[in-house]
Each structure stands twice: as C-alpha cells, then as structure tokens.
C-alpha cells in the first residue's frame, strides 16, 4: 500500500523589523547631529565610537544607518556627491541598495532579541557582540570601513558590555561603532567615557508631520497632529500608538479627565481598556493617562494655562498620583491582576470625591 505524500511544512519567515529604518532615505530633523558626523568623518580624525542618545522612536537608528551608508559609500573620502542634506546618499546607489537588502559585507547591526531558555526579556547577547568584534577586526571587504551598529545598547548583557569595552579601548583601524540608547545611564561609565556622545531631541512639528504623512498616510492632518502631540515628538511612538488604537485611547483619557466627577461611564471605559487579552490597550491607556497628568503639571508650573481638571487637587497631589498610577500599571502587568479592576481603581483615585 502506497503512503500518502508527506505534507510540506509551512515556512515561517521572521519579520525584518529593521527594514523601514534602513529604507529611510530622507532626513527628518537631527540635521545638526548629521552635520557633526559628516564633519568629523571629512576631517580625517573620525572618532571610532559614537553614542546616539535620546527618547525611544525619535530616529537614532535611522541616523546611524544614514551615517553607515554614507561612510561605506566613500563619503569621508569625497566619493559621494554633496547633497542638500548632510550624509545624503542616493537611494539608487549600490551601497544604499545592498544595505537595504541587508547584504553589505562591511556593515553589521545588533538588536535586542529574546534571552536564552525561552525568556521574554529582550537582550543583546554576548555571543552576538563577540561575533561583531571579530567582524570589526577583519580587513574591510570593499577596502573602506567596517561599521557596527548596536541598537538599544542599554540592553546588552553584562558580559556583552564588558566584551565591547575591550574593543572600545583598543579599536581596530578603519572601524566605526555606533551605539544607540534611550537610557545612556544604564551603560557602563567606562563605555560612556570611550564614545563620542550626540544627544538627539524629539522632533518638532515641522519635522515630524511630513514623516508621519509618509508613515501613516491614511490619517488626517488633525489625527497626525494629535498623535505627534501625545507621542511627544517621537515618530516611532506615534506609529506604535496608531497601530495600538492610540487615538481612541487618547479620546478615553480626554473623556475621563474632562469629567472626573462622572462615574456613569466608568465601567464602559474600563471594559474598552481591558478588552485586548494581551494587555496592550491597558498599557497604552495608563501611559497616556500619566502623560496627560505630567504635561498638565508642567504647564501649571510654567504658568502656561493648565487644563481645568488640574484644579481639583494641589500639584503635589497630582505628582503623587502620577507615581501611584505607574506602580498600579506595573503591578497589574507583573502580577497578572484584573485589568478592568485596575482601571476602575485608577478612575477612583482620579475622582475629586477621594479628596
């Protein structure tokens, strides 16, 4: 009796999370930082290691790839025609296209991955850093430079950070390392002392809006402006909020804060926030709620016309409440507590009747 043909196993391809970053040819904001990198390379005294620091999602990795493309294409040696913006490289250039495809022999990027033994914590593993160090020590395949990007460097395992430190102390020739981090203080002081630091600020509206038009073309100008405001100048955060129903959740935050004494809609709000089983809506709602409180307190402290709901209690109480909401959100996540009850607890704390 003949056997039935064996079913082919479905292939699952891992999503390339870095692709949109590598594909970004335009420079949105950060012109001063890009000019600093370009001048340093053209001076003939290019520091071997850089740290791009700033809030999540503001374009640190995008700028690092832009620098790497330009450098590997020969920009420091004048082989790249000058563009209207610093570190410009034509998207049709062969170096741009190979880096976009993840196939350039002289560039390697490290990003956090899940840890060993099935853990969920995202880390940059020591074996990946050691492989990158061996890569840097090799002769450049195309006769120019070797370039390593460590994206999210604060998530390096301790052994990985120590391994990288040795290379920073004795760098190989014609090798450049760029670290990006949203938490520079979490890096070893000895690492921070051996890199040239560039701090990137959140994008202003003039730089952020055209970027969001490209990334989120389906949104209206009003929706983009709202996202840009609640994301505080971070394109990455704005995209994440758009994908995670951020606009709808911001509307719930506005509704709650605009009518703190009205308990009739509490259960409806809590049901909406706790609807997703993965907890993403709850995490976003609590983050937006705390952001609104923080922004309101800052406005009041600067005399910039704080929202009316802020008058329900002294500023010091709002600061304490902001901290308490953060602990509530963290405990709910870590201990897998009931998210709807956590939202109701938060709304009770916000209610003026609690004074």
Automatic annotation (TrEMBL):
The keyword Protease does not apply. Its EC number is 2.7.7.7. The keyword Nucleotidyltransferase applies. Pfam families: DNA_pol3_delta2 (PF13177). InterPro entries: DNA_Rep/Repair_Clamp_Loader, P-loop_NTPase. Keywords: Nucleotidyltransferase, Transferase. It comes from the Bacteria. GO terms for molecular function: DNA-directed DNA polymerase activity. NCBIfam families: PRK07471.1. This is DNA polymerase III subunit delta. It comes from Falsiroseomonas frigidaquae.
């Amino acid at each position: 009796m003949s056997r039935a043909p064996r079913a082919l196993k479905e292939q699952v391809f891992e999503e390339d999370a870095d692709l949109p970053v590598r594909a970004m040819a335009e420079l949105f904001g950060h012109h001063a930082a890009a000019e600093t990198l370009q001048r340093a390379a053209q001076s003939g005294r290019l520091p071997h290691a850089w740290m791009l620091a700033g809030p999540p999602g503001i374009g640190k990795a995008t700028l690092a790839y832009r620098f790497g493309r330009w450098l590997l294409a020969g920009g420091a040696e004048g082989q790249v025609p000058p563009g209207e913006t610093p570190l410009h490289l034509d998207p049709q250039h062969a170096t741009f296209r190979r880096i976009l495809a993840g196939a350039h022999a002289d560039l390697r990027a490290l990003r956090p991955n899940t840890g060993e033994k099935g853990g969920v914590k995202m880390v940059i593993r020591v074996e990946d850093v050691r492989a990158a160090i061996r890569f840097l020590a090799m002769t450049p395949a195309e006769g120019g430079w070797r370039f390593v990007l460590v994206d999210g460097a604060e998530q390096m395992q301790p052994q990985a950070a120590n391994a990288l430190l040795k290379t920073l102390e004795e760098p190989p020739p014609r090798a450049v390392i760029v670290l990006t981090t949203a938490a520079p203080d979490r890096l070893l002081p000895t690492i921070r002392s051996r890199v040239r630091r560039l701090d990137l600020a959140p994008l202003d509206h003039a730089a952020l809006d055209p970027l969001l038009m490209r990334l989120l073309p389906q949104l209206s100008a009003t929706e983009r402006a709202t996202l840009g405001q609640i994301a505080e100048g971070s394109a990455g955060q704005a995209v994440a909020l758009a994908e995670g129903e951020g606009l709808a959740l911001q509307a719930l935050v506005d509704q709650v804060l605009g009518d703190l004494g009205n308990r009739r809609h509490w259960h409806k709000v809590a049901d909406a926030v706790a609807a997703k089983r993965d907890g993403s809506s709850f995490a976003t709602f609590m983050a937006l709620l705390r952001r609104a409180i923080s922004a309101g307190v800052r406005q009041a402290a600067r005399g910039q016309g704080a929202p009316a709901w802020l008058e329900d209690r002294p500023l010091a109480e709002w600061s304490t409440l902001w901290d308490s909401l953060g602990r509530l959100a963290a405990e709910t996540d870590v201990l897998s507590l009931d998210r709807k009850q956590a939202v109701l607890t938060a709304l009770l704390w916000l209610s003026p009747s609690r004074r």
